[in-house]
Amino acid sequence: MNIVNFTPMESLLGGLIIGLAVAILYLMRGNYTGISGIYFNVISVNKSGFLWRFLFITGLIIGPVILSFFSFTDLGFEMPNTNPIIVILGGLLVGYGTQLGSGCTSGHGVCGIGRLSIRSIVGTCVFVGAGVVTVFITRSLGWVVL
Amino acid sequence: MGGVVMMKNIFIPLTSGIIFGIGLVIAGMTNPAKVMGFLNVFGNWDPSLMFVMGGAIIVSMPAFLFIGKKMSAPLFNKEEGFSQQLKKNIDSPLVLGSAMFGIGWALVGFCPGPAIAALTQVDGNVFMFFIAMSIGMLLKKII
Fold it and tell me: Which positions in chain A touch B66 (Cβ < 8 Å)?
Protein backbone atom coordinates (compact mmCIF):
# COMPACT_ATOMS: atom_id res chain seq x y z
CA MET A 1 0.00 0.00 0.00
CA ASN A 2 1.19 3.51 -0.98
CA ILE A 3 -0.64 6.61 0.19
CA VAL A 4 -1.14 8.99 -2.78
CA ASN A 5 -3.12 12.12 -3.69
CA PHE A 6 -4.19 12.52 -0.07
CA THR A 7 -6.30 15.67 0.49
CA PRO A 8 -7.44 15.46 4.13
CA MET A 9 -8.26 19.17 4.58
CA GLU A 10 -10.36 19.60 1.42
CA SER A 11 -12.12 16.29 1.97
CA LEU A 12 -12.84 17.00 5.64
CA LEU A 13 -14.17 20.47 4.77
CA GLY A 14 -16.34 19.00 2.00
CA GLY A 15 -17.58 16.34 4.43
CA LEU A 16 -18.51 18.93 7.07
CA ILE A 17 -20.45 20.91 4.43
CA ILE A 18 -22.28 17.73 3.35
CA GLY A 19 -23.10 17.07 7.03
CA LEU A 20 -24.55 20.58 7.29
CA ALA A 21 -26.84 19.89 4.31
CA VAL A 22 -27.95 16.62 5.94
CA ALA A 23 -28.64 18.35 9.28
CA ILE A 24 -30.64 21.16 7.62
CA LEU A 25 -32.93 18.77 5.72
CA TYR A 26 -33.48 16.59 8.79
CA LEU A 27 -34.00 19.24 11.48
CA MET A 28 -36.07 21.58 9.32
CA ARG A 29 -38.04 19.12 7.20
CA GLY A 30 -37.60 15.74 8.89
CA ASN A 31 -36.16 13.82 5.91
CA TYR A 32 -33.05 11.73 5.47
CA THR A 33 -30.70 12.83 2.70
CA GLY A 34 -30.61 9.51 0.87
CA ILE A 35 -29.90 10.70 -2.66
CA SER A 36 -30.65 7.42 -4.48
CA GLY A 37 -34.10 7.32 -2.83
CA ILE A 38 -34.84 11.01 -3.41
CA TYR A 39 -33.76 10.82 -7.04
CA PHE A 40 -35.70 7.58 -7.67
CA ASN A 41 -38.89 9.23 -6.39
CA VAL A 42 -38.31 12.11 -8.82
CA ILE A 43 -37.84 9.94 -11.92
CA SER A 44 -40.63 7.54 -11.02
CA VAL A 45 -42.83 10.67 -10.72
CA ASN A 46 -44.07 9.86 -7.25
CA LYS A 47 -46.77 12.53 -6.84
CA SER A 48 -46.60 12.92 -3.08
CA GLY A 49 -43.52 14.89 -2.19
CA PHE A 50 -42.38 15.42 -5.78
CA LEU A 51 -41.64 19.16 -5.50
CA TRP A 52 -39.24 19.11 -2.55
CA ARG A 53 -37.36 16.11 -3.92
CA PHE A 54 -37.09 17.69 -7.36
CA LEU A 55 -35.74 20.92 -5.84
CA PHE A 56 -33.21 19.06 -3.70
CA ILE A 57 -31.87 17.25 -6.80
CA THR A 58 -31.85 20.57 -8.73
CA GLY A 59 -29.81 22.03 -5.86
CA LEU A 60 -27.18 19.30 -6.32
CA ILE A 61 -26.61 20.72 -9.82
CA ILE A 62 -26.90 24.42 -8.87
CA GLY A 63 -24.34 24.03 -6.04
CA PRO A 64 -21.38 23.18 -8.29
CA VAL A 65 -22.45 25.94 -10.73
CA ILE A 66 -22.40 28.53 -7.90
CA LEU A 67 -19.02 27.23 -6.76
CA SER A 68 -17.62 27.62 -10.29
CA PHE A 69 -18.21 31.41 -10.07
CA PHE A 70 -15.63 31.62 -7.29
CA SER A 71 -11.92 31.35 -7.97
CA PHE A 72 -11.60 28.01 -6.33
CA THR A 73 -9.33 25.17 -7.42
CA ASP A 74 -11.26 21.92 -7.08
CA LEU A 75 -9.76 18.45 -6.85
CA GLY A 76 -10.09 17.91 -10.58
CA PHE A 77 -12.16 15.67 -12.77
CA GLU A 78 -10.81 12.51 -14.38
CA MET A 79 -12.57 9.29 -15.36
CA PRO A 80 -10.05 6.44 -15.28
CA ASN A 81 -12.40 4.13 -17.18
CA THR A 82 -14.35 5.53 -20.13
CA ASN A 83 -15.03 2.25 -21.93
CA PRO A 84 -18.73 2.71 -22.87
CA ILE A 85 -19.60 -0.88 -21.89
CA ILE A 86 -18.08 -0.36 -18.43
CA VAL A 87 -19.69 3.07 -17.99
CA ILE A 88 -23.15 1.70 -18.88
CA LEU A 89 -22.70 -1.49 -16.84
CA GLY A 90 -21.50 0.56 -13.85
CA GLY A 91 -24.49 2.91 -14.13
CA LEU A 92 -26.97 0.02 -14.32
CA LEU A 93 -25.38 -1.67 -11.27
CA VAL A 94 -25.36 1.56 -9.24
CA GLY A 95 -28.99 2.29 -10.15
CA TYR A 96 -30.37 -1.21 -9.60
CA GLY A 97 -28.17 -1.96 -6.59
CA THR A 98 -29.03 1.20 -4.66
CA GLN A 99 -32.75 0.49 -5.10
CA LEU A 100 -32.44 -3.19 -4.14
CA GLY A 101 -30.20 -2.34 -1.16
CA SER A 102 -32.35 0.74 -0.36
CA GLY A 103 -29.47 3.18 -0.05
CA CYS A 104 -26.22 4.58 -1.31
CA THR A 105 -23.23 6.45 0.09
CA SER A 106 -25.42 9.27 1.42
CA GLY A 107 -28.36 7.20 2.74
CA HIS A 108 -26.46 4.31 4.32
CA GLY A 109 -22.96 5.81 4.56
CA VAL A 110 -23.79 9.21 6.08
CA CYS A 111 -27.38 9.22 7.39
CA GLY A 112 -27.48 5.56 8.43
CA ILE A 113 -24.12 5.55 10.18
CA GLY A 114 -25.00 8.96 11.70
CA ARG A 115 -28.08 7.32 13.25
CA LEU A 116 -25.99 4.30 14.29
CA SER A 117 -28.22 1.98 12.23
CA ILE A 118 -26.77 -1.53 12.16
CA ARG A 119 -28.50 -2.17 8.82
CA SER A 120 -26.75 0.83 7.25
CA ILE A 121 -23.40 -0.03 8.79
CA VAL A 122 -23.69 -3.52 7.22
CA GLY A 123 -24.75 -1.98 3.88
CA THR A 124 -21.80 0.45 3.91
CA CYS A 125 -19.29 -2.30 4.75
CA VAL A 126 -20.69 -4.42 1.89
CA PHE A 127 -20.52 -1.71 -0.77
CA VAL A 128 -17.08 -0.45 0.28
CA GLY A 129 -15.83 -4.05 0.49
CA ALA A 130 -17.30 -4.93 -2.92
CA GLY A 131 -15.72 -1.75 -4.31
CA VAL A 132 -12.26 -2.57 -2.94
CA VAL A 133 -12.41 -6.10 -4.38
CA THR A 134 -13.70 -4.79 -7.74
CA VAL A 135 -10.89 -2.23 -8.08
CA PHE A 136 -8.34 -4.92 -7.20
CA ILE A 137 -9.76 -7.19 -9.93
CA THR A 138 -10.14 -4.53 -12.66
CA ARG A 139 -6.62 -3.28 -11.96
CA SER A 140 -5.23 -6.83 -12.08
CA LEU A 141 -6.99 -7.40 -15.41
CA GLY A 142 -5.49 -4.16 -16.73
CA TRP A 143 -8.95 -2.59 -17.35
CA VAL A 144 -7.93 0.45 -15.37
CA VAL A 145 -4.65 2.08 -14.31
CA LEU A 146 -4.69 3.73 -10.89
CA MET B 1 -48.46 28.86 -0.59
CA GLY B 2 -47.98 30.08 2.97
CA GLY B 3 -44.59 30.92 4.45
CA VAL B 4 -44.15 27.64 6.29
CA VAL B 5 -45.14 25.60 3.24
CA MET B 6 -42.73 27.63 1.07
CA MET B 7 -39.94 26.96 3.56
CA LYS B 8 -40.78 23.26 3.74
CA ASN B 9 -41.28 22.55 0.05
CA ILE B 10 -39.04 25.10 -1.66
CA PHE B 11 -36.35 26.88 0.34
CA ILE B 12 -35.17 24.10 2.65
CA PRO B 13 -34.80 21.31 0.06
CA LEU B 14 -33.24 23.69 -2.47
CA THR B 15 -30.78 25.10 0.10
CA SER B 16 -29.88 21.63 1.39
CA GLY B 17 -29.31 20.38 -2.16
CA ILE B 18 -27.13 23.38 -3.08
CA ILE B 19 -25.00 23.00 0.07
CA PHE B 20 -24.73 19.23 -0.51
CA GLY B 21 -23.62 19.78 -4.11
CA ILE B 22 -20.97 22.32 -3.05
CA GLY B 23 -19.73 19.88 -0.39
CA LEU B 24 -19.43 17.05 -2.92
CA VAL B 25 -17.22 19.14 -5.22
CA ILE B 26 -15.00 20.53 -2.43
CA ALA B 27 -14.59 17.02 -0.98
CA GLY B 28 -13.42 15.64 -4.36
CA MET B 29 -16.35 13.20 -4.63
CA THR B 30 -17.21 14.41 -8.13
CA ASN B 31 -13.78 13.23 -9.35
CA PRO B 32 -14.10 9.51 -10.22
CA ALA B 33 -10.29 9.08 -10.13
CA LYS B 34 -10.31 10.14 -6.49
CA VAL B 35 -13.14 7.75 -5.57
CA MET B 36 -11.43 4.84 -7.33
CA GLY B 37 -8.19 5.84 -5.58
CA PHE B 38 -9.98 5.41 -2.25
CA LEU B 39 -11.12 1.92 -3.25
CA ASN B 40 -7.58 1.04 -4.42
CA VAL B 41 -6.55 -0.09 -0.92
CA PHE B 42 -4.14 -2.71 -2.28
CA GLY B 43 -2.41 -0.27 -4.64
CA ASN B 44 -1.85 3.50 -4.63
CA TRP B 45 -4.34 4.33 -1.91
CA ASP B 46 -5.99 7.75 -1.43
CA PRO B 47 -7.67 7.68 2.02
CA SER B 48 -9.38 11.10 1.54
CA LEU B 49 -12.91 9.68 1.31
CA MET B 50 -12.75 8.53 4.91
CA PHE B 51 -12.44 12.20 5.83
CA VAL B 52 -15.48 13.07 3.71
CA MET B 53 -17.61 10.45 5.41
CA GLY B 54 -16.13 11.28 8.83
CA GLY B 55 -16.75 15.02 8.41
CA ALA B 56 -20.33 14.45 7.28
CA ILE B 57 -21.03 12.11 10.21
CA ILE B 58 -19.47 14.50 12.79
CA VAL B 59 -22.07 17.11 11.82
CA SER B 60 -25.08 14.89 11.08
CA MET B 61 -24.81 12.54 14.06
CA PRO B 62 -25.58 15.21 16.71
CA ALA B 63 -28.50 16.36 14.54
CA PHE B 64 -29.97 12.84 14.45
CA LEU B 65 -29.14 11.65 17.95
CA PHE B 66 -29.29 14.80 20.11
CA ILE B 67 -30.86 17.91 18.57
CA GLY B 68 -33.60 16.00 16.70
CA LYS B 69 -34.43 13.96 19.81
CA LYS B 70 -35.02 17.18 21.78
CA MET B 71 -37.43 18.53 19.17
CA SER B 72 -41.03 17.30 19.00
CA ALA B 73 -41.11 17.84 15.22
CA PRO B 74 -38.93 19.32 12.44
CA LEU B 75 -38.97 23.12 12.45
CA PHE B 76 -41.11 23.54 9.33
CA ASN B 77 -42.87 20.17 9.15
CA LYS B 78 -45.06 19.66 12.20
CA GLU B 79 -47.66 17.60 10.29
CA GLU B 80 -45.37 14.86 8.92
CA GLY B 81 -42.81 14.89 11.75
CA PHE B 82 -39.43 13.18 11.56
CA SER B 83 -39.19 10.44 8.93
CA GLN B 84 -39.74 7.01 10.46
CA GLN B 85 -40.15 4.75 7.45
CA LEU B 86 -36.89 2.88 7.84
CA LYS B 87 -36.18 -0.84 7.73
CA LYS B 88 -34.06 -2.20 10.54
CA ASN B 89 -33.45 -5.82 9.55
CA ILE B 90 -30.43 -7.15 7.68
CA ASP B 91 -31.79 -9.11 4.73
CA SER B 92 -30.50 -10.51 1.46
CA PRO B 93 -31.74 -7.58 -0.72
CA LEU B 94 -29.64 -5.23 1.44
CA VAL B 95 -26.50 -7.34 1.02
CA LEU B 96 -27.04 -8.20 -2.65
CA GLY B 97 -28.07 -4.66 -3.62
CA SER B 98 -25.17 -3.07 -1.73
CA ALA B 99 -22.73 -5.51 -3.36
CA MET B 100 -24.07 -4.62 -6.84
CA PHE B 101 -23.84 -0.93 -5.99
CA GLY B 102 -20.25 -1.33 -4.73
CA ILE B 103 -19.19 -3.09 -7.94
CA GLY B 104 -20.74 -0.38 -10.15
CA TRP B 105 -19.27 2.36 -7.94
CA ALA B 106 -15.80 0.85 -8.34
CA LEU B 107 -16.10 0.27 -12.10
CA VAL B 108 -16.69 3.94 -12.91
CA GLY B 109 -16.09 5.93 -9.69
CA PHE B 110 -19.55 7.46 -9.32
CA CYS B 111 -22.24 6.99 -6.70
CA PRO B 112 -25.65 8.65 -7.28
CA GLY B 113 -25.10 12.11 -5.69
CA PRO B 114 -21.77 12.89 -7.36
CA ALA B 115 -23.06 11.51 -10.70
CA ILE B 116 -25.85 14.12 -10.56
CA ALA B 117 -23.55 16.95 -9.36
CA ALA B 118 -20.95 16.06 -12.05
CA LEU B 119 -23.52 16.67 -14.81
CA THR B 120 -22.16 20.23 -14.57
CA GLN B 121 -18.96 18.90 -16.21
CA VAL B 122 -21.00 18.62 -19.44
CA ASP B 123 -19.18 15.38 -20.23
CA GLY B 124 -20.63 12.65 -22.45
CA ASN B 125 -19.38 9.82 -20.22
CA VAL B 126 -20.99 11.36 -17.12
CA PHE B 127 -24.23 11.72 -19.04
CA MET B 128 -24.06 8.10 -20.23
CA PHE B 129 -23.50 6.89 -16.65
CA PHE B 130 -26.33 9.08 -15.38
CA ILE B 131 -28.80 7.69 -17.94
CA ALA B 132 -27.73 4.07 -17.25
CA MET B 133 -28.08 4.68 -13.49
CA SER B 134 -31.59 6.09 -13.98
CA ILE B 135 -32.58 3.09 -16.14
CA GLY B 136 -31.11 0.72 -13.52
CA MET B 137 -33.28 2.33 -10.82
CA LEU B 138 -36.43 2.11 -12.93
CA LEU B 139 -35.62 -1.54 -13.83
CA LYS B 140 -35.78 -2.38 -10.13
CA LYS B 141 -39.35 -1.07 -10.10
CA ILE B 142 -40.31 -3.35 -12.99
CA ILE B 143 -38.36 -6.52 -12.08
Answer: none
The two most distant CA atoms of chain B are separated, in Å, by: 55
b/e string for A123-139 if b means 16 or more Cβ within 10 A? bbebbbebbbbbbbebb
Biggest CA-to-CA distance, chain A? 49
Neighbours of A113 (CB within 10 A): 20
pLDDT of residue A28: 97
pTM for this one? 0.96
A88–B129 CB contact, under 8 Å: yes
Please write the tens of the pLDDT for every residue from A61-108: 999 999 999 877 788 999 999 999 999 999 999 999 999 999 999 999
HSE on the CB side for A134, CA within 13 Å? 25
Residue of chain B whose Cα is closest to the Cα of A40: B137
- Pair B2, B76: CB distance under 8 Å: no
Q: Which residues of A touch B25 (CB under 8 A)?
A: 14, 63-64, 67, 74
The ipTM of this complex is 0.96
Residue A133 · residue B100 · CB < 8 Å: no
Per-residue pLDDT at A1: 73
pLDDT surpassing 80 at residue B126: yes
pLDDT of residue A99: 98
pLDDT reading at B62 higher than 90? yes
Distance CA B35, CA B111 (A): 9
HEC string for chain B: CCHHHHHHHHHHHHHHHHHHHHHHHHHCCCCHHHHHHHHCCCCEECCHHHHHHHHHHHHHHHHHHHHHHHCCCCCCCCCCCCCCCCCCCCCHHHHHHHHHHHHHHHHHCCCHHHHHHHHHHCCHHHHHHHHHHHHHHHHHHHC
